[in-house]
Specification:
alpha+beta; six-stranded mixed sheet
């Protein structure tokens, strides 16, 4: 995700996360799928719906599911913006943000439900 964000800079990049749901609703990401940002913008992102359908089908065929989306913020924190919150399509998804604002990229994950955000722990294995 970080490499994808750096490659796409100065525009925001986006992609989908697929895997399984573990204990307590914890998402276990098994695959990452970079997608085109149809908005081609430094301020917003739009995942290609055809890519979403393809990744969803691939995930189900592999015994998993679509877990969420990631995207980059080029000039702000790795925290959902008001636009991100308003456009969050699924309350069960994990929303991972990569911030390129500082010298070292930051990665944070969020749940977005009913217009409210809650940060969740990111564990790399």
């Amino acid at each position: 995700m970080v490499a994808h964000a750096l490659e796409g800079y100065p525009l925001e990049v986006c992609g989908l996360l697929a895997g399984t749901v573990g204990e307590g609703g914890t998402g276990v990401v098994r695959s990452m799928h970079p997608t085109d940002n149809l908005a081609a913008s430094a301020r917003v992102y739009e995942v290609d719906p055809r890519a979403m359908l393809r990744v969803d089908r691939e995930a189900e065929a592999a015994g998993g599911q679509l877990l969420g989306v990631y995207h980059s913020h080029t000039h702000t924190d790795a925290k959902p913006s008001p636009t991100d919150i308003a456009q969050a399509p699924d309350p069960d998804w994990h929303y991972v943000l990569v911030s390129l604002r500082d010298v070292h990229p930051a990665v944070r994950s969020w749940r977005i439900r009913d217009g409210k955000t809650q940060e969740e722990e990111v564990v790399l294995e």
